[in-house]
Prior knowledge:
The structure is a single chain. The protein has 746 residues and is mainly alpha-helical. Among the domains are: 1-135, Alpha Horseshoe (Leucine-rich Repeat Variant); 362-440, Leucine-rich Repeat Variant (Alpha Horseshoe), CATH 1.25.10; 592-686 and 708-745, no CATH class. Helix content is 66%, strand content 1%. It contains 38 helices and two strands. It has helices at 2-7, 11-26, 31-48, 56-66, 72-89, 97-107, 113-132, 138-148, 154-169, 179-189, 195-214, 221-231, 237-254, 262-269, 280-295, 300-303, 319-324, 328-337, 362-374, 380-396, 398-401, 405-414, 421-436, 472-480, 489-504, 506-523, 526-537, 543-559, 564-572, 576-589, 593-602, 606-615, 623-636, 642-647, 655-667, 672-682, 701-709, 712-745; strands at 312-314, 355-357. α10 (179-189) packs antiparallel against α11 and α13 packs parallel to α15. It is rod-shaped and about 145 Å long. InterPro entries: ARM-like, ARM-type_fold, Vac14, VAC14_Fig4p-bd. One of its GO terms (biological process) is phosphatidylinositol biosynthetic process.
Amino acid sequence: LVREFVAQNNTSQIKHVIQILSQEFALSQHPHSRKGGLIGLAACSIALGKDSGLYLKELIEPVLTCFNDADSRLRYYACEALYNIVKVARGSVLPHFNVLFDGLSKLAADPDPNVKSGSELLDRLLKDIVTESNQFDLVGFIPLLRERIYSNNQYARQFIISWILVLESVPDINLLDYLPEILDGLFQILGDNSKEIRKMCEVALGEFLKEIKKNPSSVKFAEMANILVIHCQAADDVIQLTAMCWMREFIQLAGRVMLPYSSGILTAVLPCLSYDDRKKNIKEVANVCNQSLMKLVIPEDDEMDEAKPSVTIPAEPSSEESLSKPESVTTGESQLVWASRAVRKPLFFPCSCERIQVTLNLDGIVQVLDYHLSDTSIGMMTRIAVLKWLYHLYIKTPRKMFRHTDSLFPILLRTLSDESDEVILKDLELLAEIASSPAGQTEEGHGPSDGSDVRPGPVELHVPARAGQLSSSSTKGLECSPSTPTMNSYFYKFMINLLKRFSSERKLLESRGAFIIRQLCLLLNAENIFHSMADILLREEDLKFASTMVHTLNTILLTSSELFQLRNQLKDLKTPESRNLFCCLYRSWCHNPVTTVSLCFLTQNYKHAYDLIQKFGDLEVTVDFLTEVDKLVQLIECPIFTYLRLQLLDVKNNPYLIKALYGLLMLLPQSSAFELLSHRLQCVPNPELMQTTDNTKPSTGFKRTAASNIDYTELLQHFEKVQNKHLEARHQRAGRAEQLDRRVVL
């Protein structure tokens, strides 16, 4: 009948036949009528031949309706009917591709094996048609693909991936342009339980990545950056490794286009750096990502102003928004980064012709770095990477980074208590850079605040706005030495807070104090460090801590190889700077009598050392005091004091040295130290020559110069004053202890 109508070109009758088959049969309530209607519609299509394209809508719609039928036999008949319709129409069905695809995606997950088998035949036919045609409407198809890609059904996922692979293989179809629309869904399918589906998805992603490497200029890197950030944090190792590999390629191919997403990338990458060998592959790729991203930061970023023209990239916010709200880039980014990893809703990244500047989002980066450094559960390698990042940023963008210094200072000081020596070393390098960078010079109204003080106390030591506000001795030590590099306002603040840290954490001082100070002497100017610490300790109210700290500094000064140059400078006292440094150290060293004597031995002030020892008779001699004398005797036998022992040969010109040593001997009880020093003094030649008068002249000219420039009487008075304070403090502590004992007894 239909063939006759076609021969007569009777379109109205053809439509009438199709309408009757559709309404009265295919859409009937009776199942056998529906089967007959489906067979009839297929027969109409075969009879129409090439003209079937004119009636495709009327032919396809009732068949697709039967796809939802409860009867599996009917669904199979519908699949068979549609196969015949599509086979005849071929390319003419492409305008109806979306509804066909939608119906097929449902049949792919059909529980009946016959229906599923029939749908696979129809699916292959449709793929052949799409592959042969150059009229496929990809733009219209992408929204449907983006919707269906989030299906949780394994068969539906397999169906989706197979279509993506087909479309990717067609030369005339550029699916890469629409990759941002489906990339998130692909990564979610990569986590499927089926090995076959995961393998298909890996192949699809691999093909896309190859295409990206071939044509990086046409890739929308920025629109996919946040998708990768999310999946780089996935719990599934395969998803995480694949996303991390993509991130590595994106950073290397796109370069500075990825900078606006740095905070999100670091959020994903940094924790991976502490993975163990079980996730070695992820760790290695994450390390490459981290290093590559770090290289993108350049000195020009410190000079780049938001108002200046720059390289631009496509992005969602407008230029005006990005300028008025610098955090606009990270707002959307952070929402994605901190979102739940179990994302099951489509992520929309619409293409936009609006553009923003590629600027370094320093606020977001510092926030992420601060978070990871503050988290005590983070691994050692991650903390090291964070410190390297901060150091790199202070080197490349010091002007902008110093805006964050006050907020970073407390956590950097707390990091000095880290268990790892390597972490502490990196932390000290960073603190040293902050303390010595010219960008940290205090400007009026922008000086370093005291908000980072780590130990509250009744008296706060404030950072002077200008170095000139320090004591005269401190000023000379910090500024006058021509060999001393210029230190900024944060240097003095660092010294104050470091000493506060030692005061509040005595275990840190005992276990790492010497290590920290020695490293700082390598990284910064040793003279500055000792000068500033001495100046601060001079005003320290906790006298017990001051004595302990002075003892620690003195031990470092006398024994550390890093301070060889400073020891030589103090040993000779040839320059005004060295004499000034000696006076500054001396005033603080008075907190500990024995260290004061050792300083005099180091600087060859033997007469003053003898005068000090004479004062020891007025002091309270405790076990700790005698222990320190014992240690000093041991030090005298070390290579540091080789010159002192050789001067014992010159009895005539060094009588006070011998007297001072005999004074120490008289202080000591009968012990191994007593015997050691006694044996040393027995080696002094011609003991009768030790007798001398007060007018004995020093053997060297520079010693006379030193004596004329240093008021030793005033220094001796200062020593007595400080020791009286210590005596009062000990009596007060003893009184409090006695009262406590009485309360316990009562």
